[in-house]
Design goal:
This protein is an alpha/beta fold and about 425 residues long. Helix content is about 40%, strand content about 15%. The protein starts with about 20 loop residues before the first helix and ends with a helix.
Length: about 425
């Protein structure tokens, strides 16, 4: 879920993973039946699309406006609020009341469960116009399964004036980040905000330690001495009193940074317009700093994609709609990427003419994303994400040793890998 200065009810990426793998979702109750299938309008045909509730003002209205222009069917939008988008989506996909199209992230479990259909014929004519990483992350079992709508890098935002006053340079290493957070903390301002449970930074922490989530042959790659040491340093930061904790909104909302509650904050590029409006040119950005000698700075290059359900009432019509909106209607794609927060268009031609991203802090963000960004690994499942996030809960926010926390995650993730790949 993208976010701007307006409030957002939930963590669009972290919460999505909280329910675990698809098998755990099988027992969930199906969604309500109010999907809009009884519409039809002039064409007599209807489609339903699922979206989580984006935080930026105007996003819901924009999606409905786009859908109205599709002349082949009436398109009903299920705008799902609260913290249960994932559970509602996957319970619906397991029922007879599945949406025709929906947004999510590329994950192999949906392919293995035959819940989505390939979109090779939709993508192929413009395949070379998409970022190679977006095509790679959506390619599973030899097919392309989704159409990327937005690319969303995340950074650490910092107030230049506050760093200068404290005699602090923008941190380049994890140790420097700890030191800076301490120096920037006062009785009114905390040095750093990484989210209320810190779980979103586990992946950049791994990458910046010189490790990865999985190897090329789908084995655990994150469990290294360097990652364990970085977790220990993050625990030190958590106990230091320099972190803002229990903020009114989580990391995805820039309000804590904009209201002066913290000197630095982990947040996405979607929050940049609101941050610039609040602080003008007194803002800089850095990637997550390198956490070990053989590591390098890193950042998450997340985003959202459109998929067609295998249970769609009319699969061909659903694919036609996805093609119409997310391939053919480039003016809608530009509007979606640039009018409600800042997002990098996944298509090269649209990114090339995205003037709002060509100067200033936005241009720096694009450059950092290209240099340090990591895209989705579709072989890393919901249960695996939850296991990694629990490493933060166990070894950073609690006192379990990093090795013990990583061992615990290994058991869950190895079980998932065995189920998927043997």
């Amino acid at each position: 879920m993208r976010v701007s200065g307006s409030g957002r009810e939930w963590d669009r990426r972290g919460v999505l993973r909280a329910a675990g793998g698809l098998a755990a979702l099988g027992a969930l109750a199906a969604c309500g039946s109010n999907t809009g299938r009884d519409g039809g309008g002039g064409s007599g045909k209807a489609l339903t699309q699922y979206f989580h509730a984006y935080g930026e003002a105007g996003t819901q209205q924009a999606l409905k406006r786009y859908a109205k222009g599709f002349g082949r069917a009436d398109v009903s939008t299920q705008w799902i609020t609260g913290t249960n988008f994932e559970s509602k989506l996957f319970s619906a996909l397991l029922s007879s009341d599945a949406p025709d199209v929906f947004e999510f992230h590329p994950q192999i479990q949906m392919v293995k469960a035959e819940q989505i259909v390939p979109l090779d014929d939709v993508i192929e004519p413009v395949k070379d116009d998409f970022q190679e990483a977006d095509i790679k992350s959506h390619t599973m079992d030899g097919h392309i399964w989704g159409v990327r709508m937005i690319d969303d890098p995340k950074f650490i935002y910092y107030r230049k004036s506050l760093l200068e006053k404290a005699g602090v340079e923008p941190p380049q290493t994890l140790d420097e980040l700890l030191e800076a957070a301490g120096k920037l903390t006062t009785d009114k301002v905390k040095g750093l905000f990484l989210g209320n449970n810190l779980s979103d930074v586990v992946r950049p922490l791994i990458w910046s330690s010189g490790a990865d989530l999985l190897t090329e042959d789908n084995r655990i790659a994150y469990h290294t001495d360097e990652v364990a040491a970085a977790l220990g340093r993050l625990h030190t930061l958590f106990k230091s009193g320099s972190l803002l904790l229990d903020a009114p909104a989580d990391y995805w909302d820039p309000s804590a940074f904009n209201q002066g509650l913290t000197a630095m904050q982990w947040c996405g590029m979607w929050g940049m317009p609101a941050i610039l409006q609040a602080h003008g040119d007194d803002v800089g950005i850095i990637p997550w700093p390198k956490s070990s000698g053989n590591g390098r700075p890193s950042l998450i290059n997340g985003g959202w994609s459109m998929f067609v359900s295998s249970k769609a009432k009319d699969v061909d019509l659903a694919k036609e709609y996805v093609k119409w909106l997310w391939i053919d209607r480039t003016e809608y794609q530009e509007d979606w990427c640039l009018s409600y927060g800042f997002h990098i268009p996944p298509r090269k031609s649209l990114a090339a003419r995205a003037t709002k991203l060509k100067t200033g802090l936005a241009a720096e963000g694009v450059e950092l994303a290209e240099k340090y960004g990591h895209f989705d690994n579709p072989n890393f499942t919901q249960a695996m994400f939850t296991a990694l996030e629990n490493v933060i809960a166990d070894s950073v926010r609690s006192d379990k040793t990093p090795e013990a926390a990583l061992d615990k995650a290994d058991r869950t993730i190895n079980n998932e890998l065995k189920k998927l790949f043997g």
